[in-house]
């Protein structure tokens, strides 16, 4: 496993982390506690020791609670990242007001209890609170850094302008945004701003929510209650086109002697990002972790051809529905 610093002065972390959203039942397909435990332990044992979760992953903070139990004796072996401020109401709309300083303090105390630890290594604001200036939210997070409750500050799905404002209050170590061969928006400006400020760019959903890894080839592959059935990229018509694009990835991966998921992750690593794939299956977790070393030996020509094979304008459907996208800070 290759390593890098988190932000300019942050801890040393693996080049590929582990996204723990998939550990919670009901997020994608149902997962048993035994399966989730096996996947989490495989992540740590295979070197994916940056564990990324959130207080909303699963009912009553299920993902955080599981991590706290499973890693109780291995806390020093991992870099724990969690998030706050991403709660939604019954209609699925993001709740305003969760970025207020008092809410920040309440949220971290609840997460620390569930995780069974006295500090979090990286603490993210999950979504920008439109009712609270980012300076106030980050100011409260900076107080947590000073107190030793958190080690570094992260933001998720914010615009370049918001990132600059936040970074002026306190250094931001990481910016997390959806980025993959199928979601290329960060290439417009955000990646450059992160490089300028020394902020690590963390790519979530690096495998296109299953499309790029080859696990989903039709709507019928999704359980009836899978939320992806409502995602524009998975609806009838769009999914057929997108699977065709994923087949181009698979063809190049076969030529390189690696899996499609490993090639998709190598493509992200080549762009100086830190992907955090998640999986319920230990064998997939192990294969994802191996992508860092495989990427180092990959012929750059394969990556160039891959970029040409899947142009960003060819992907069918928006990355999410209108309600979800409305909560993403675009700076407009």
Automatic annotation (TrEMBL):
Q: Keyword Oxidoreductase on this protein? A: yes
Keywords assigned: Oxidoreductase
Annotated Pfam families: Aldo_ket_red
Q: Does the keyword Cytoplasm apply?
A: no
Q: Where is the NADP-dependent oxidoreductase domain?
A: 15-309
A cellular-component GO term for this protein:
cytoplasm
Q: What is this protein called?
A: Aldo/keto reductase
| Species this protein is from | Streptomyces radicis
Q: What is the lineage of its organism?
A: Bacteria, Bacillati, Actinomycetota, Actinomycetes, Kitasatosporales
């Amino acid at each position: 496993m290759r390593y890098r610093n988190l932000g300019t002065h942050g801890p040393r972390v693996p080049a590929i982390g582990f996204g723990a959203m998939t550990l919670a039942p009901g997020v994608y397909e149902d997962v048993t506690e035994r399966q989730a435990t096996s996947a989490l332990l495989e992540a740590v044992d295979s070197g994916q020791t940056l564990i990324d979760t959130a207080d909303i992953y699963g009912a009553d903070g299920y993902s955080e609670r599981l991590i706290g139990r499973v890693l109780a004796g291995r806390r020093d072996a991992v870099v724990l990242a969690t998030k706050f401020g991403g709660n939604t109401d019954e209609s699925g709309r993001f709740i305003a007001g969760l970025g207020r300083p008092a809410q920040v303090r309440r949220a971290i105390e609840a997460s620390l209890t569930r995780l069974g630890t006295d500090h979090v290594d990286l603490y993210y604001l999950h979504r920008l609170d439109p009712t609270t200036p980012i300076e106030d939210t980050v100011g409260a997070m900076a107080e947590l850094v000073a107190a030793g409750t958190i080690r570094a500050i992260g933001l998720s799905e914010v615009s370049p302008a918001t990132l600059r404002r936040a970074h002026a209050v306190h250094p931001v170590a990481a910016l997390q945004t959806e980025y993959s061969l199928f979601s290329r928006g960060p290439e417009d400006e955000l990646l450059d701003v992160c490089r300028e400020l020394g902020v690590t760019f963390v790519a979530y959903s690096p495998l296109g929510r299953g499309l790029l890894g080859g696990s989903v080839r039709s709507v019928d592959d999704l359980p009836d209650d899978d939320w992806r059935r409502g995602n524009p990229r998975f609806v009838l018509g769009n999914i057929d086109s997108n699977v065709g694009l994923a087949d181009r990835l698979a063809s190049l991966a076969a030529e390189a002697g690696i899996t499609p998921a490993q090639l998709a992750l190598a493509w992200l690593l080549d762009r100086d990002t830190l992907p955090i794939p998640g999986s319920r299956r230990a064998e997939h977790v192990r294969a994802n972790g191996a992508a860092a070393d495989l990427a180092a030996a990959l012929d750059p020509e394969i990556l160039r051809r891959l970029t040409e094979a899947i142009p960003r304008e060819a992907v069918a459907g928006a990355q999410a529905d209108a309600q979800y996208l409305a909560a993403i800070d675009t700076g407009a």
